[in-house]
User: Fold these one by one.
Assistant:
Number 1:
Amino acid sequence: MARVVVVGGGFAGLAAAARLAKLGHEVTLLERSATLGGALGRVEADGFTWDAGPSWTTLPAVVRDLFRKSGRPVERELDLVPLDVVREHRFADGTSVRVPPSRAGQVAAFDALGPGLGQRWAEHVASYTEVWETLRREYLEVPWDPAAPSRELAALLDSRQTMHRLLRRRFKDERLALVAGHPAVAEGHDLRNVPAWAGVTAYVEQRFGAWTVEGGMARLADALTARLATRGVTVRTGTTVRDLVVRAGRVVAVDLGAGETLDADVVVVAVDPRLLPTLAPLVARTMPAIPPVVAHLGLEGEVPDLPHELVLHGDPLLVVRTGGGAPEGSSAWTVHGRGKLAEDLLRALARHRIDVRANVVTRLDRTPRDLVERWGGSPLGVVWQGRSTVRRRLGPTTPVAGVYAAGAHATPGAGLPYVGLSAALVAQAVGPA
């Protein structure tokens, strides 16, 4: 049995702690804020609730595997609900497309934009079949060595093809390129710096669909918090880890400041490694992805009937999420904004003929800085700066013996699937007691 300290109580930290405790280790989880969940939490005001971060996920098998490997199946605790529409995209020319999570549905949806566009889109998604299989086998489901990847994985990671170049060549219709590039752009990346293989998101969404949790995604964090108690994990909130204590190249404790240390055989870093002076030099060549500007809205009266997620293309790029909780006769929306935000988000929204300014009864605004300070780092992980970025991250292992990394900063993308898989990789690397 190893003494394991998990630093960070977001989804990655919760998942890693639950898995390692089930493997028989003595686990302590440390979280700087007063509550667990991080971006997988809820925001509440005046009877309204909103998802603080993600409002849906792909790859539900990641959540199911986490619960199965740490105790009871997820179906006994949460209702995972499939979405009929992944998202709707509206374009500057007034056209729009609702993207369902199936090949046939997507072909029909894009054909409605223009003859032949459905087949063109289907071919684009299908081109990622082998990419997905390589990533799954060699990178996402097994701990990998950045210095010695397999031949197949090295060929993929070392490709010079960028998403920007690929989409310009592949799509004459700009609307398809906007849809294909959106997931990366929404996470704060410049497509000129994103490897083409990262577009595998389109394949994952089509094949595995989009899912949400009945009652809000924060219920997932609640269920995992309860799972930690069941597994005997010691949880300390309001506790900041100042650094790692390393002797002879191996971690032996974490430094909590004021002369307090906590002994550890294994430390799982589920926060931005920059926060720990021992690890910061190892990730000095990476940069955090910047969160969007966010407005949580409590609305009363009649409002437009929108899907779970609506993307309004332009500058600024606006994303509207409608799945929040609200009193009878009211609605809870969250609006994200990126780009040239020279005006209020709701005024920008009104220019797209979605004017809810008169319906607002509650509003909470969050700047990117607010979010980073609230969560102790960016939940979007590392910004793409070219193909070498994937090797500049830490995780699941690190150069410091006994130290492992999980979370958005240890994966090739943000979102619950990548983060959940990173926690599974750490559990594999540490192994059973």
Number 2:
Amino acid sequence: MTDVLIVGAGPTGLTLACDLTRRGVACRIIEQAATPAAGSRGFTLKPRSLEALDDLGVADRILAAGDVRGWLRFHLGTEPLFDLRLPPAPADPSRPYPNTVALPQWRTESILRDRLAEFGGKVEFGRRLTGFDAGDEGVTATLEDGERLHARYLVAADGGRSLVRRTLGLPFSGSTAEDTRALIADVRIDGLDRGSGTHLWVSADGHMLVARPIPHADTWQVVTSLEPGDEGDLGTLRHALTTRTGRDLQVYDPAWLSTWRYNLRMVERYRVGRVLLAGDAAHVHSPFGGHGMNTGIQDAYNLGWKLALVIQGAARPELLDSYEAERLPVAREILADSDRRMKGMVPPRVVRPLVRLILKSVMARQQRRTRHDHPVYRTGPLTRHLTGSHGRVRAGDVAPDAPVMLDGSEHRLSELLRGPHFTALAFGVAPDLADPRVRAYTVVRPGRAGLADTSGHLHRVYGGREGTTVLIRPDGYVGLMADSPAALADYLERL
């Protein structure tokens, strides 16, 4: 028997497998495809996802393989309307990853597979799940080759057509726009300027075409809306590029083509006993806003530490209910946001200068907002705020980073947070705590013994008065803020 069976080896399943394996939890990750996926699909990694991937030890690889330039050239019809070039934001003491990173999904998956191998795990390709039985003691899964796999928990990361979700009989509530389809492809294009970044064409009849260069390659990801009856093939793509851009572009060497239908759907339950859902198995939506891959990674990062604590006997099984309580509201917000963004991409029939002013302003604002896209759990069941608002951070927020001195050398707080543990920060008072799940630090002003906040930043953002105590969860969220270290033991006991 294994501890966790993960069905699906996309970014969601791989993130969970990496997190569990590094925590010493035995897991198997199966994928029905015979080989790794080749398509670019999800293309944007957001700052919060980068923070999670930093904890897993791969953020530097992601940055090296991707592109942080937010360049866009917008065309209304065949004519350029405006260029939008937001320079990369500089890192600040609070956020080490202030920018989104453009990176094709196949590359993200490759980096995560390599990291999983370093932790001692591997993806089992060509293993198709055909059914499972779940009971109070665990799950028995049947694979197409006849093997029966026994696991304490099963996590469905098997995408929008999830067999696990359908077997459970969970409604996938929402809508499907049958006439709203798009073709997505990775191709070579001659005649298009890569230096301009992403190109977006919007026609008067509401059709769209997006072409964005794939970093460190000579290929492009192209997404184009389809007319009713259009085939999802290279001929259709060539015709769309010619007619919607007004240019004689040469398109060839397709590495991957796929069609997409506009779905806006989600489940209302993320856990059914020993079975949990994550990523597209739990929610699907439009690609606008770049939420898809990021939401799956963050689902897995929220779930991983909770599963590990329960399996290791360090927390009660009820802790797993907090996964749904925290992540389901996030999915609702994301579905609404992606729908708004998609509808907002089709401009009304107004005077062109007005379109230029409105769209450029709106799109710049959206890009800036995406850089600060950090879901919060302020009303979640694991959130306790037992102090006045002395700083700008509240329980349920992502813990801001800061420079600190420890044992005479400078570190980042994020370095101390890495790993499977909780982190307690007690300002000026040493916590009386002996808990193997927690690393505790007394935060002092420079020049005194302990964890020295070299810039005073920790005190400012956390409101670090004498006695203020902060407990940061393994996923980097603040779980507890209190005026006294005595609240720590009570919080941990509730787990």
Number 3:
Amino acid sequence: MARARKLLLISPQATFFGRNPQHQRFKRESREFQFFDYTWTGFATGLVIVGSLTPPGWDLHYIDENIEPVDFDEDADLVALTGMTAQADRMYEIAAQFRARGVPVVAGGLHANLVPFEVARHVDSVCVGEAEALWPQVIHDFTHDGLKPMYRQTTRADLSVVPRPAYELAQQRYYPSIWVETSRGCPHTCRFCAATIRYRDKLGYKTVDQVIREVEYVQERWDNPYVLFSDDNFVVDRNRTRELLSRLVPLGIKWSGQSDVSFYKDPEILDLMHESGCMTMLIGFESVSTETLDGIDERNWKFRNLSKYVEAAKTIQDHGVGVYGAFTLGLDTDTKDSFEATAQFVKENYLAGIQVSCCTPFPGTPLRDDMERENRILPDKSWSYYTVFDAVYQPKHMTPDELEEGALSVYRAFYNREFSLRKTRHFKSIYRNLVKKKVEREQALATTGRSMV
């Protein structure tokens, strides 16, 4: 009997929260920040998708180098690598070691989509596009005619017919959260965002039945899983969102997702989020400055919605859903005063959590094009510094060191024991009010047979 071919699926190691020693020290010492770090840690979704697309007869080994080392002596017929830009340098090192043994290497993922010709110099084959549209052809060519140097997607993947990701590949490793994808793409084309400009020009959706089956599959394999919906923008199609949330309610999960602020105007969605177990929504506020937001996305949507940020945060959190605010600092109109303004906003509005990033000119973005023309990219910063917590360019109104220090100052102002206790008291009052309203609704229903509006 012929030996099964073996495929290694490898996610290279990366540095979370940047390479600045002060950032790493804060990460080690702040218990409040460690909870954020813990909650948003999950596996490489692209690799479990590739696993699901690999035909029977292959022996699959998923390796997350952030959890376990790569065994470069392991038997393998083919290696598949994925990675974001901050993982690229390590991805090249891993590829070199396997290729030195004669093991072919295929690379995909975000960085490969941004700079495919650079990646091609380090691997045998590059996938540019969605795995569902490319991987079956890669496997066919490997087993028949030999790999092509590059595979480019010509049609969008139809997410409504794709197989369930092979979650079981990651089951043997410890992950505090499990990523589940329900849609792909985002309607906002932000100048600094690498993900939304490369994968799709139109949003794609899985069916609600698909998503529910995936969540149930995850529930069968993990005890009390915390689900992270990986969609770039979870609440775009409101009717679909309502149906999905209604179907999630009886499953009894706890979950988080990502979105813009627009859903705060929909009380039905807010109620269903709370009922279905939504703990937090990460929302890309980006900035609290009108100057900074003007022109940040193609339709100027975020600039037009800045005036609603305070109302939106309060409304969402009053419904029992915490707001994780995402902010990008160091854009061209930002000054050193921007750090204090951001810290003031997140504390005054008692956000549940924050993600504060240094503006990062990822390859392939309009922001990168601008900074290259202006010769502002720092030449001594390799891809491993593109963590979004390290400054890799020359800001206009501060030094790179001042940008990193300023971003860290916002974290310190927010993630500390004193403010966390104040925030806890704030959320306790919200939850007491929610319980009171629930009791009143139930009493009204029992007394009159009619629910309260």
Number 4:
Amino acid sequence: MAEARQPGGPPTGRSIAIIGGGFSGTITALQLLRWAGEQDRVILIERNRQLGRGVAFATDDPNHVLNVRAENMSAFPDEPDHLLRWLEALPEAERAHIGTSDSAGTFVRRGLYGRYVRDQLAQVLRQRRSTESLTIVKDEAQSLARTGQGWQLRTASGRTVRADTVILALGNFPPAPLPYPGCVDNPWQPQAIEEIDLEHPVLLLGTGLTMVDVTLRLLERGFRGRIHALSRRGLLPHAHAAAPAWRELRLTAEDRRSLTTLMRSVRREVARAAVAGIGWRSVVDALRPHTQLLWQELSLNDRQRFLRHLRPWWDAHRHRIAPQVASWIEAMRRSGRLVLHTGKLLGLEPSGPWSCGSLVTYRQRGSEQVLALEVQRVINCTGIGVDLTGTDDPLVRQLLTDGLVRLDRARLGLDATTNSMLIGRNGEVVPGLFGVGPIVRGTFWEMVAVPDIRSQAAAVARTVMEPWPAGRRAA
């Protein structure tokens, strides 16, 4: 482990505050503790009871499994089989219920994966044999201010936390509220499906991963009614399948010149792979190590074009679901219990005998025909919120108002450098302030899945724990 020493002097302890204890924050704390010196201290601030869960891993629904194979979900980028070894060490009774497994791979229950992350944090603390290495503050961070070379953070309970470095790891935000009464805007809150009539129809806005999650939650609850799902393009996530590695990916400088040339080159690679008997999934997987660089090479205009026109297709192909989950969704479609609608939402009006009932009108894609549905509840499943201008998070609002941070140009999160340091309103890098995970998606694009976040967390930990220059003192 790296020692935090000044040249020729005694150990100098540093304090690093991580705001957010979901997956992004917990994996960052884990990486920091692996690199920290004996006197360094990590402070993890999380308002919820359990660490390492966040939105994705807070579910205890046995049908909610990871959307990425366990073979790619190690917490450590330098130990790719670490999760598999942890699973193998579980008691036999638990191994029988870890998730689903077939030729496409093993897909672990999300709740179990959250336990895996917490176990790794506990293991590192045991190895350090110090209860002072990590302080967990169960509170909500509300404001952050510069104090000399360090930071002062205040929480909802009035606590003051001082730190030399602050890392924002706030995870995913709920979808932006829709301007319609009676619509459940946060699909991940327990109330989204509470007190729901098990027989009458519901409408889910969106047909991506969030829609799949909510559908599975409804099934687990015993819902027997019809589920309607509406989106502009009607695209469902594709299923994982056995995908041999495609090692012949070729992307020249000319291929990367613009979004148009890049898309042509990807189609070319898919065609080349098909000649070799290899499917498109292998080509998409081969792109994964390069997507952050490809995104950063695009102009702002091309990034915006991608978000407007191509993103739904990319998400459906890139963010796939476990084969078993895809089979459940397809069976529901065949039986008529899940009905996809393609079109643009026009409005919601209170209707029906239910407290949250709505008459939904939408314009069918490709025509001027306006159709209507009467449902007992509408749930916003359009995906994670990205435009932070309307966020209700007090810390993010304060940082934006004070100019300590700014939105990235594509408005996907906060602006950051390629080494994850946040950028202020004046365009200058803010020393000692970092972002990890979806909060800096605008810089990296691919920064919502475990393989991307774990690598970023490791890189940030190495940067933060670099030896200090002589004369530097902790805040």
